[in-house]
Amino acid sequence: MRALLFSCQHYDQESFARAANDSALDLHYQPARLTLDTAALAHGFDAVCAFINDELDAQVLECLASGGTRLIALRSAGYNHVDLAAAQRLGLTVVRVPAYSPHAVAEHAVALILALNRRLHRAYNRTREGDFTLHGLTGFDLHGKTVGVVGTGQIGAAFARIMAGFGCQLLAYDPHPNPELLALGARYLELPQLLREARIISLHCPLTEHTRHLINARSLASLQPGAMLINTGRGALVDTPALIDALKSGQLGYLGLDVYEEEAQLFFEDRSDQPLQDDVLARLLTFPNVIVTAHQAFLTREALDAIATTTLDNITRWAAGNPQNLVIK
């Protein structure tokens, strides 16, 4: 059973090598992103293992299928980047990793909140330059503040537990209320009301046709002036140009992003010796109250090991005729 991993970084190769151990799977690692131009590299491979910024549209899937690929094994929970109708038409099975470490993403969201609130990024740069003044570094107590959790699945619930530990008041929005959040004292509200009442909003919902640009110019206008927005979900949950306008006006007081709608051409690569070609991202990075990390929220040893173990188990079970974690069969 031959499998090719696209978008494979050194840490992926290390975690998969640990998980594979004595596995009979024949794993191959490809650092290139899966696109129409690179899909031919998978010819002769039974399974293709794809990550979040790999392209799995109809043309790419047709190329994979014509080369003998029969299984798309996603190294992610989300599958919004897969043309599921095309996969079904081509007879491709698609499996995913429904959960790896919700703590990893939730904890990164909290790290962004703390860094933005206490201006740790600015303080770090100042002290390295010998500036030990405190002007402009005033934060606020998290205790007692109202935090809105948008999307209350495993990651949202893990985030809510942490914020409850800080003594925050919890608001939640999700079509399917989670009993765990109710037990924490969270109030479920419709999204417009949550946005009006919360001082901090953290996005943990999947990207679907209904959640694309969930945060836009209209919803940003309803925020409390100076509110904080955190997105560790998917970049397209927010309309990025609208964020810039809200930051310029002061309506949005803090912004923490681990994802970006146009990240596929940027993230996971060292581009430090090149001019940044994305004008929207370049503008975002000029604001002192913005922190952008390059989709690293998932990046813990525990999460990487869980992703590798589940992915390999998905491939092995599919090969044995007992598939699990199916998106489509």
TrEMBL record:
Protein name: 2-hydroxyacid dehydrogenase
Gene Ontology molecular function: any one: NAD binding
Keywords: NAD, Oxidoreductase
Residue ranges of every copy of the D-isomer specific 2-hydroxyacid dehydrogenase NAD-binding domain listed in the record: 110-297
Pfam families, per database record: 2-Hacid_dh, 2-Hacid_dh_C
Family according to the record: Belongs to the D-isomer specific 2-hydroxyacid dehydrogenase family.
Domain D-isomer specific 2-hydroxyacid dehydrogenase catalytic: 9-327
Domain of life per record: Bacteria
